[in-house]
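I would love for you to help me understand the pair of lines that follows before we discuss the fold together.
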Amino acid sequence: MIEFSNHKMGYAIFQDWNANRGSLKSQFVMILFRMAKLFKSNIILTIVFCWYLLLYRVSVEWLLNIGINWNVNVSKGFRLIRGYGSVISGDTIIGENCTIRHFTTITNKVAEDGSS
């Protein structure tokens, strides 16, 4: 398998597949998210696949109204149940086997000094 940033590509992209079994939309969104995250992990990949990152923004964030920032650190087994209206900010860290339902917002509080 191809390795990027200490992740095996096949595993990294499909690690949420079983958690979202029965929901083709959620499987599709999570594959698109994992690919966007992979392409943002390396400057060369970011440049080569900038068209994909734009496609991700338009298809997932604008059309499907699911705002999962590609900087989010999500462990394996992430389950997205009808993610419509969900927003997860880029500084968020989500552990293994977490479930998110529609209209969920996850972010972090930033203090006046810039710390979170």
